[in-house]
Amino acid sequence: MSNRSTKIKALLSLGLLAGFGTVTTLAAWTGTATATTSITSATVQLGVGANATSATTSTYTVPLSGTAWYPGSSAAALVTVKNNSSVAVSYSMQGAITESSQYELGKAMQVSVRSGGTVTGTAPAATCTGGTSVISKAAGAAFDAPVARPTQLAPNGSESFCVQYTLPTTAVSNLQGVTTKIDVVFTASVGS
Description:
This protein has helices at 3-23, 105-108, and strands at 46-49, 74-83, 90-99, 110-115, 118-120, 127-129, 132-137, 147-148, 158-166, 180-189. With 192 residues, it is mainly beta.
């Protein structure tokens, strides 16, 4: 074997060793840590009813006789709003009228909502007494803008209102036989 072939074999062996050296890796020691949380969003839901126990749904038909109204008639009922949410909520109230004809019976009505009021008398001469006026709609007028309640309602908390509807003695004759729908809408909000 020649000197030259020995040198070539030696160089090839060095190259092979150098190639193995670049392929190998060193194992590193590692450690991990994780901070985690589970988040469930709040629910916001108001219920209305005759009292806090029955205020479980979002609609409630006020138990008034809707027929045979005449000038001077007045009816009143208690309505309770309850916070069925998982958090405290702020809420507002607003009246709304849906007329069924060109003759505006709802607009002609007087409506009063009193916080903490009670019903006195029976229809057709029932009224709300006591408490604090929250909404007052005069005959011939529309409802005002929403009224925000001054404090938050805690989860399962409730507030009672006395709602009075009156057809004034000045109601015009063309309102006979007309139907209207009058709502008090409670709107809860959380956050901005």
